[in-house]
Design goal:
The protein contains 13 helices and 13 strands. It is an alpha/beta fold and 397 residues long. The strands form 3 sheets. Strands 6-5-4-7-8 form a 5-stranded mixed β-sheet, sandwiched between helices. Strands 11-10-9-12-13 form a 5-stranded mixed β-sheet, with helices on both faces. Helix 8 crosses helix 13, helix 9 packs across helix 10 and helix 10 crosses helix 11. It is elongated, with a radius of gyration of 24 Å.
Amino acid sequence: MSTLASSPARPASQDAVLAFAWDSSEFTATEALQSTGLTRSTTIEATDALVARGLLRELPNARLAGDYRKGRPARRFTLRADAAVVVGVDAGHEHVSVTVADLRGTRIADADTRLVLDRDDGPARAAIVAETIDRALAAADVTRPDVLAVCAGVPAPVDRTGRSPRHPTRFWERMNPDLADVLSWAPIVRIENDASLAAIAEGSVGAAKGCQDYIALLAGSRLGAGVVVDGRLLRGSHGGVGEMVAFDHVDGVHGAEGLGHRVAAWAAELAQSGEATAGFRDVAPESLDARTVLAMAAEGDADALGIVDRVGLALARIVSVLGSMFDPERVVVSGAIADGVAEVVAAARRSLPTDLDLPAPELVASTLGGEVVVTGAVAAAVASARERVLDVWGAAG
């Protein structure tokens, strides 16, 4: 892998050819110039410079590859996807998940850590994030100098500099203990809100691919929204777009508790009330976690279906408010809870009001499961690498 260092000013042609290469499996100079509009000599000069930098690899020519007919064989090139790695991090409230990938985002290795919440503080969390990244790098048989870009998602608002604002209980500061500084050993560092990374994942490979206006609703233990309007991820002055504290004041929602939390809490409440009429009578309240209740609903249990309808009504109100605020085409329920939330989504669709000023958004469940944030982190790291690699990549020695 090449040395990463500050790069001097360069011709714009290198950016154009590299962008084309990143979207191509392999290509010739003719194909590059047709796409970029550059002259042949400029295209060849830029391509050779990128080969020297270690970002492109020249492949065997058409004659050696067995695809040659007559005339001078064309030179063929491809992006060196293995020239460096990117790292995606989901630094969640209860866990840290890390994925190491190549420059095209192909997964190489992973590592995970479950957090002990009663010992949770900023410095300890930062150390765990760093240690989990190092374990993932070791599993990928690379080291920190091989990393081009790192993106970490945290359950807190994040501004353009990667910092989180003060929180009354210092929760946001604990969730994002200045990770931009902790990870500054990487040439490119990006810190994002976790729901924003869920939105990036859904738009890249998930249920919102090809959609320009959508919301990814992380809905497990707490609600968070990643908002994309006109194809652009919204952030806000302090990173607060998508924060859900406003739902403290919405009838029928009353707070930012996630769908999973509501399912478990309301199921336990019904079981303890003595009013259960079906399966809940035979299950200890402490055993009624969200996964169990949703599985019971899928099997037609009347108590579980009642809880699903109640949670679906709350989700419908959440979607209605988000729809009136951001006018999305689609709302994607994301996160680990999405694996079993089909019944809740169906109930919410039935409860969506029909008298809204704007058409109600389409409501769908994600297929990306609990890896949605780390998937988005990898996609964001690749995007940042594409944008900035020529600013930080030194010429090959």
